[in-house]
């Protein structure tokens, strides 16, 4: 019967019992079932190689064992690490994960989330920026949700996020302690609470060194022209800060990647001409001449803790509970991209030519023989 679909009716007929009795056996309800009947059903199931429909059983019990996770771009290594953290925990707890990717599109996100709900997932982990009104509507539908590495209205929904406050202040302080005069900040559009908070942290932390840090903040559109936008903003930064040793902090890894290429395309060096650091360690930064200084996000831990929190909510079954916010601590990695040897030069002066392109004038210290 290898090619024949075995049904619960076929099992009941061969075992000479009702379908209800077979169903009770499959669900572990052996009350009022004789040992002989139980053994006969077991033998028939083994003989026919019957495999019960786990989804159908779950629907009857309102327990499908499915968890949905929504991400923006699975190609980003930190997102992949987060998903791995979710999946590893769910496997240990006998849950299956359904992954959907939305590419930052709100309509796509909402449609795919609704599709997950239609498939009777027991809970959702959202790791992409969401429309607050839509998320609120999900909670009104009694959908259990945990936000992972993204936020909406504080305290409204279970959330696992990175506590960047201390790390941002420490990194900026350490860059200035290396002898840099200005630290600029490049960020994508301020469309999410986390981006707004990072900018606020940068502005507050920069007050130790400059009076008007907002003049060192640049907002870059997330388009195919990001390279050109970075180049234009970097030229503006260089023009307004001639004679200063400059460093840049990028809000995310994709922006840091674009900035690195812009710096090299302008004939500048890292860190001798412009230093650079940012958030998230993607591994590829080791391919450059200098390994990048980063605030490393513990993405795997975020995913694992989000899954643990969601599974606990599912297990308790209650919908009314006080939302919990878990903050995980990032790790600062200061590397060669923000460190310049004091004995290599005295001062770097970046000038702008008539075409508003940077050129470099250096006063090197005389090296000892």
TrEMBL record:
InterPro entries, sorted: Cro/C1-type_HTH, HTH_LacI, Lambda_DNA-bd_dom_sf, Peripla_BP/Lac1_sug-bd_dom, Peripla_BP_I
The protein, known as: HTH-type transcriptional regulator KdgR
- The coding gene here is kdgR_1
> Which terms does the record give in the GO molecular function aspect?
DNA-binding transcription factor activity; transcription cis-regulatory region binding
The coiled-coil regions, if any, are none
Q: Which organism is it from?
A: Enterococcus casseliflavus
Gene3D superfamilies reported for this sequence: 3.40.50.2300, lambda repressor-like DNA-binding domains (1.10.260.40)
């Amino acid at each position: 019967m290898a090619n024949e679909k075995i049904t619960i009716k076929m099992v009941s007929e061969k075992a000479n019992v009702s379908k209800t009795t077979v169903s009770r056996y499959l669900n572990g309800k052996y009350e009022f079932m004789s040992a002989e009947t139980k053994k006969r059903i077991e033998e028939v199931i083994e003989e026919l190689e019957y495999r019960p429909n786990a989804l159908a059983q779950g629907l009857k019990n309102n327990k499908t064992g499915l968890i949905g996770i929504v991400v923006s771009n699975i190609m980003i290594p930190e997102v992949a690490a987060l998903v791995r953290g979710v999946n590893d925990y769910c496997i240990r707890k006998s849950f299956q994960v359904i992954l959907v990717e939305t590419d930052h599109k709100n309509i796509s996100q909402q449609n795919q989330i609704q599709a997950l709900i239609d498939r009777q997932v027991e809970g959702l982990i959202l790791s992409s920026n969401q429309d607050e009104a839509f998320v609120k509507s999900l909670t009104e539908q009694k959908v259990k949700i945990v936000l992972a590495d993204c936020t909406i209205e504080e305290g409204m929904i279970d959330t696992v996020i990175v506590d960047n406050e201390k790390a941002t202040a420490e990194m900026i302080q350490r860059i200035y302690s290396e002898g840099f005069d200005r630290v600029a900040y490049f960020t994508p559009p301020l469309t999410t609470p986390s981006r707004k908070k990072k900018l606020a942290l940068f502005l507050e932390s920069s007050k130790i060194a400059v009076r008007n840090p907002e003049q060192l903040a640049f907002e870059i559109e997330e388009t195919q022209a990001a390279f050109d936008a970075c180049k234009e903003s970097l030229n503006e930064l260089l023009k307004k800060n001639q004679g200063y040793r400059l460093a840049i902090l990028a809000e995310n890894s994709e922006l840091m990647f674009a900035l690195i290429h812009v710096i090299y395309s302008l004939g500048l060096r890292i860190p001798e001409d412009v230093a650079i650091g940012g958030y998230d360690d993607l591994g590829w930064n080791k391919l450059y001449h200098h390994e990048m200084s980063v605030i490393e996000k513990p993405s795997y831990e975020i995913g694992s803790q989000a899954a643990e929190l969601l599974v606990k909510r599912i297990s308790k079954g209650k919908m009314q509970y006080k939302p919990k916010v878990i903050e995980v601590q990032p790790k600062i990695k200061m590397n060669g991209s923000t460190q310049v040897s004091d004995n290599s030069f005295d001062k770097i002066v970046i000038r702008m030519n008539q075409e508003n392109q940077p050129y470099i004038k250096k006063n090197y210290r005389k090296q000892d023989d």
